[in-house]
Amino acid sequence: MDKVGIVGYYYMKMSPDLIYGRYNLIFETVRGALDSVNLKKKDITTVISATNDYYDGRTISNAYCVEPAGAYLADESKAEMDGAFAAQYGLMRILSGNHKLAVVWGGSTPSCYPYDSAQLYQTDPTFERPIALVNNITAGGFQMRAYMEKYGVSAEDIAKVAVKNRKNAAKNPLANPEAQNANITVDDVLKSDILSDPVTELMYAAPCDGLAAILLAPEKQALKITDEPVWIKGVGSNQDPYYLGDRDLSECKSMEMAAKMAFDGAGITAKDVDFAEIFEQYAHEELILAEAIGLAEKGKANELNSEINGDIPINPSGGAIAGHAPFATGLMRIIEAVKQLQGKADGYQVKDPKVAIATGQIGFCAQNNILYVLEKGGN
Fold it and tell me: At what angle are helices 155-171 and 136-151 packed, to 10 degrees?
């Protein structure tokens, strides 16, 4: 694959309620990404957005977003998926040879819409939706229970993931304040309210307001823009079956396939990865996805030392538990990986990383996954 670099990025501090106009949020985010590398609106050749009609409560959710996103008189399109998938769309546009700078932005403001109710539109309209017993929360309970029972992993093991990520979030100045807790304990997590047994409230990546943007450029252009691009060395995506009953929820086949595709493209294996930024909707998903990627054997991810200074740091930024801004969360995983590779993750920096992975997902129980292999670059 030709070299494509991530040359700029920006995401604002997440919040339960930003109390800020949607178009102002988009403008500030895209403008912030351009300002990070001293570029102008005229430098943009294509813009990809990640938004959703159901969450925005209107059709054509990117309508009226063209101007604040810098897409006026530029090639513009939308991916109704997590921002990490929109980044793949932007990557393909750069690789086509037709564009020299792609803006990829995504995000939403769940404070303005019923997030969990909107999630019901993912369910089968004939059997599941009318009774609403299968939804994004109960699905998380099914998944955690399946994983625990198959591998003998305890609720305490999973609570430790939530503790790690919330403590890491306390070091990340852009994390959702409600997720930041430097003094949280396993007991706090286990005694928090039950969402869907055995999942508790503090094991869940609660939705919050936030937007993120990245800038992509081909190799020659990237090196003109910045001395420290981060190269996309490989990318893979895959999707599991739609019905939960058709899947083994204790594992994630789509992530296994996505990781294999990305690693093969980059010419590396999971052993070459220095750290990972994983989009985990729940604490147990970090373990399931880490195993699917190959960072640990099946049922053994709880034995990893995944702290910031550990053997394989996972989510040093706090991951999605640090703040889940729908449609921006995957982009934020990419941005956090880039910050680490550039040595700019002040307060939660991994020691001397060279190769990272960042993931995104959509669907109940991480149905659809995407994984990027990122490499530290420069002149």
Answer: 120
| Fold (CATH) for 4-114+210-225 | Peroxisomal Thiolase; Chain A, domain 1 (3.40.47)
Assess contact for 314 and 340: CB atoms under 8 A. no
- Please state the separation of Cα 81 from the chain's center in Å: 11
Phi, psi of 327 (to 5 degrees): 80, -5
Contact 124, 243 (CB under 8 A): yes
* DSSP summary character for residue 307: S
In whole angstroms, give the CA distance from residue 368 to residue 253: 10
The answer, as to whether pTM is greater than 0.90, is yes
Query: By the 8 A CB rule, do 200 and 189 touch?
Result: yes
Is omega for the bond preceding 16 within 30 degrees of 0, making it cis?
no
Q: Which pLDDT tens digits describe the chain residue by residue (379 residues)? A: 689 999 999 999 999 999 888 899 999 999 999 999 999 999 999 999 999 888 877 788 888 899 999 999 999 999 999 999 999 999 999 999 999 999 999 999 999 888 888 889 899 999 999 988 999 999 999 999 999 999 999 999 999 999 999 999 999 999 999 999 999 999 999 999 999 999 999 999 999 999 999 999 999 999 999 999 999 999 999 999 999 999 999 999 999 999 999 999 999 999 999 999 999 999 999 999 999 999 999 999 999 999 999 999 999 999 999 999 999 999 999 999 999 999 999 999 999 999 999 999 999 999 999 999 999 987 5
Residue with the two structure tokens 């996103």: 69
CA angle 96, 97, 100 (to 5 degrees): 115
Q: What is the Cα gyration radius of the chain? A: 19
Strand order in the sheet with 75-79: 75-79, 46-50, 102-108, 210-218, 4-11, 230-239, 368-376, 355-362, 275-277
- Sign of the C-alpha dihedral, residues 183, 186, 192, 197? positive
What is the number of alpha carbons within 13 Å of residue 27 lying toward its C-beta?
A: 9
Q: Are 236 and 216 in contact (CB under 8 A)?
A: no
